[in-house]
Amino acid sequence: MNYKPINRAPRRQPSWMITFADMVTLLLAFFILLFTFAQIDLRKFAAALGSIHKELGTSVIRYQGEVPQKTSLIEFPHVQSSLNPLLPVRDALENMIFGMKIKQDLSVIETKRGIILRVKGKTFFNAGSDEILEDSFPILDKIGDIMNKFKFNVSIEGHTDNAQLTGGKFKSNWELSSARAISVLRYLQGKKHINVSAVYVAGFADSHPIDNNDTPEGKSNNRRVEFVFSPDG
Fold first, then answer.
1. Are 84 and 125 in contact, with CB atoms under 8 Å apart?
2. Is residue 164 part of a domain?
3. Residue 180 and residue 111 share a domain
4. What is the 3-state secondary structure (H, E, C) of the chain?
5. What is the distance between the alpha carbons of residues 147 and 141, in angstroms, rounded to a whole number?
6. Among 142, 162, 164, 146, which residue's Cα sits nearest to residue 154?
7. Both 55 and 150 in a single domain?
8. Which of 139, 104, 146 is closest to 125 using CA atoms?
9. For the chain, which end, N or C, has fewer CB atoms within 10 Å of the first or last residue's CB respectively?
10. What is the pLDDT of residues 14-57, one digit of tens each?
């Protein structure tokens, strides 16, 4: 027997299915983009984890080298192996600056030497003087608390601009920068009882400028005291 094929009309899908399929496709693309752009701030995570370790009495993993500022979610499992022990110090210093609303005169910098707290000279001293201003005592007290909390080596370093001193107590910027660093150390030792065996002082005069000495603003930036926190040992 010969059978004739039965011609059936194609089954038509409801018109709303086309719109629904487009929406699902767009949502899928959207979530893929979110996953691709998602970032984890390693420094904040490491600092938080380091604080937890400290409270629980466990050791913090030490890391030698630079911690990448951000990483993708795919690299997240490697965070714990790259903790920098100085990150909690950096966060404590930044929180201090934020809490005291003195951001214009203090800054925190990460370098190969360690974490540097940079303080403009006018915050601590009058021009040509090594006598600490009373208004800066609360700032130094906070710095001393951080130094006592985190057991790292700290170098207190005085810097000046290139203007020559005329008259006054000091004959050169070398003497002035050194005397200022020593004054800060004496205050912290007397008021906060810091461990002086882990503290160093130095005066660099105008030999390490961070700005151009040709402008008043540049000179102001170069007149500074720096606290350099570095790993012990």
1. no
2. yes
3. yes
4. CCCCCCCCCCCCCCCHHHHHHHHHHHHHHHHHHHHHHCEEEHHHHHHHHHHHHHHHCCCCCCCCCCCCCEEEHHHHHHHHHHCCCCHHHHHHHHHHHHHHCCCCCEEEEECCCCEEEEEEHHHHCCCCCCCCCHHHHHHHHHHHHHHHHCCCEEEEEEECCCCCCCCCCCCCHHHHHHHHHHHHHHHHHHHHCCCHHHEEEEECCCCCCCCCCCCHHHHHHHCEEEEEEECCC
5. 10
6. 146
7. no
8. 139
9. N
10. 777 778 777 878 887 777 777 665 554 555 555 555 554 444 44
CA distance 169 to 188: 23
Q: Chain-centre distance of CA 111, in angstroms?
A: 10
- What tens digit of pLDDT does each residue of 204-233 get? 999 999 999 999 999 999 999 999 999 864
71 is in which domain, residue-wise? 16-82
Q: Give the position of tokens 């020593």.
A: 182
pLDDT tens per residue across span 92-120:
999 999 888 777 889 999 998 999 999 99
Name the residue type at position 122: K
Q: Judge if 70 and 119 occupy the same domain.
A: no
The two three-digit tokens of residue 95, written as one number: 């929180």
CA atoms within 13 A on the CB side of 82: 17
Q: Is the dihedral of CA 120, 125, 128, 129 positive or negative?
A: negative
